[in-house]
Amino acid sequence: MYREGFLGLPSFSSSIVAIATAVAAIFFFWFLFKKREVHPPKIPTAIPNNNTSTTAAPSTSESSSASTADLARNYEVFLNFRGTDTRESFTDFLYTYLVGAGIHTFRDDNELRIGEEISPELLKAIKESKISIPIFSKNYASSKWCLLELAQMVECHANEGQKIFPIFYDVDASDVRNQKGSYEEAFRLHEKKFDEKTVQRWRDALRTVGQLKGYELDKETNGYEGELVKKVVRSVLLQLKKNYTHVPDELVGMDHHVEEMTRLLHDDSDGVRIIGIHGMGGLGKTTIAKVIYNQLCESYEYCCFLEDVREKAKHQQDGLVNLQKQLVSRILKVDLPAIVDVDDGINKIKDAFHGKKVLIVLDDVDEKSQFDKLAGECSWFEKESKIIVTTRNKEVLNALEMTCIKKDLLQAYRSYEPDLMSDYHSLQLFSKYAFMRDSPPEDFSILSEKVVSAAAGLPLVLVVLGSLFFGNEDKDLWEEKLRELEKIPNEEVLKKLRISFEPLNDRQKCIFLDIACLFTGQDKANPCYMWDDCELYPRNGINTLVLRSLVKVGDDNTLRMHDQLRDLGREIVREENFNEPAERSRVWRPEEALDVLTGEFNITMHVCYKSWLILGTKYVEALNLDFGAVEQKEFEQLESYGKSWDSAACKEVADYERAIEFNMLDRYGELVNKVVKNVLLQLKKNYTHVPDELVGMDHHVEEMTRLLHDDSDGVRIIGIHGMGGLGKTTIAKAKHQQDGLVNLQKQLVSRILKVDLPPIVDVDDGINKIKDAFHGKKVLIVLDDVDEKSQFDKLAGECSWFEKESKIIVTTRNKEVLNALEVTCIKKGLLQAYKSYEPELMNDYHSLQLFSKYAFMRDSPPEDYYILSKKVVSTAAGLPLILVVLGSLFFGNEDKDLWEEKLRELEKIPNEEVLKKLRISFEPLKS
Fold first, then answer.
1. Rounded to whole angstroms, what are the CA distances from 551 to 247, 281, 562, 663?
2. Helix%, strand%, coil% for the chain, nearest 5
3. Is the pLDDT of residue 900 over 60?
4. pTM score
5. What is the pLDDT of residue 164?
6. Catalytic residue among 76, 128, 149, 571
């Protein structure tokens, strides 16, 4: 017999039952489907716990109910709410802001739960959350699930200290606490369905939470939901310490720094305050800034700590633009449209800061320009804002101070240089890392003091050495390591300290190495004679080393250098040849110096002064002659080699061997677009950044205006050409960046249409998209620093792409580009479309004025610096770039001897920054 309903035919009665069952199932699933259609479930999304980045919140349309995988994550905030009351309004608003602020937030929207108990996954989400936020609405108490969750939250609050931040959305706290109003009616129904113990547990939970300090919409923000959400998110951030930066637990000697910084930050003034923390590498500047930031951030809704500004700005592609993005996204806690270049970033930062009291730390800034592009001016900020800058280069802070003086905001700026650690605190810090206690064990006390003395109060070194000796109980190994450290400094320490050495020019590096190897503790005047003769320009060099915290000059005019910096210099020299001192540029150990002098080297010349000697051997340039207790017979060996001593002062050593910005205004046809255009113009949104110190620009503007606006109403192409530094201003970067031209095409199209487009896959695709973007639009475009005609062709193509009266301005160092453009226009019968302009060099009057603006913050030099200024200006020969660079170089310097020395240096060795700019024109030439 066949089994019914499978292979054989079922009986009639069985068929009726099967059909009825199937219809019932269809109606059941249809009901479920419609219910989910009305309220589409949502996935609770967790954002990675990373307070260094901001992730955009997902839209509610992308959410669905919590999965087991989602619930397996550790959440920080648990939202408890009545879905039909607030799911798609207040709760969604709050959830979006919490997630946008980088807070792991659980939100369960499943309204179709089965059973009587909370699922294990949901229970885990409640227990592991640090904060629970129940949102009490009118129908909240009618949901058994809301009450079950609330009872569990109260249990976690009592047993594990979990925080509860209740929100009383459209009910009074007293109604929740006492179960009045709609809550009273809901509990009448619950008493009929559930046992007395369960109902009483729910009542107790409501009473407990109703007594907690919470947020009442009407009382807190007069019914404004957005303001309430901001308050709640801020409280959550503070409770979770989300804005906090990481600082080590082993802090020592921090109280003094905190007191001093607090005094500088909080005075009688309510204006913006800028504090610069400066000093040598490893001094603890960043740690001090972090501690202060963590203390202050509770009082600021808008906070940002930008670490490693120097490293990111200089060594990452689009480094400054990425830093600007970080700053804006952290201030606004949302992702903004892309920042296309530094000038665009400046505008977006100014908008982000407007009307906001902010706390910002810029860590490890080494150029004033970095500060300018990230924090600009005091006028960008609301009163009581604080900006903290850490740097190894005091020139940055000097420039900041002068800017504040110029803006009549002297009270806005203060600086602080932390002291080195005392012996007591040094031993304590070392012990925390080496022994995990505040002091060394008694039998390691003497050894620990020896290690600490080698660090000379530098926190970085104490931490590194403490970690190095941690867990090591072999005293012989300690002794050996100490002997090694005396000769070979720790590599991790050297790597950190070398950061300050690398930016020096060759002459400054020479002076630094000389001091490290030979002149620490000596009168500055002695080696200056030698450095002068060697054309190292010591006054300027020493001044730079002092500003970069590499050298100090004592009250007695002696040169002083931290032991670790001294060891850095000596290690750099030792790396020239690890095994042969005679093949190093400097020899500082007396015994090695004696070997060099008695060795078989062809010493062609020597100059001796007190305890150091300049040699003209193939390798050695200088060595230490302070032999101390070396026996007389060893000195006598020098006579046998025919080498004599000159006890006179240093003689002149003649043979010394050291020796894009696109800007466009669209023509809009619609009223809305016209309004947008007028708003942009009014707010100067399309403006590019130009310095305040413009000089002699009227003539150029008049000439360019004449060329741009003639009787013709056609497209006009203007080429501005001339040598580098003439003031034409980087399309040329297209050659040095991967997909450079494609990226420039993307920027151009996005700025024309003011929307993000689908990706441009290659240059030809970009040309087509640009033509579409230009179609029917009157545009203004500047292509800056074009050095090949092909770059123009792929960005601005032909006149036929543009609407009449469009203007295209091209700057270039290569007139061949403009000649090719002119030929193209002639070929197309559009000769009137093209004109070119070559700016003249600056005259003497404007040159002195431009230099004075950068050197003295005024239109003319002070009377006692007039002749010196004229000399400096004459070296620039009317080139604006050089005038700006030299003005910045002499800015804030009142030492006339230093001016004179710098002038002599400039006559022989051009400024490196100027050379770098001018070399751009040299590199493309054929050999």
1. 29, 12, 8, 46
2. 50, 10, 40
3. yes
4. 0.66
5. 95
6. 149
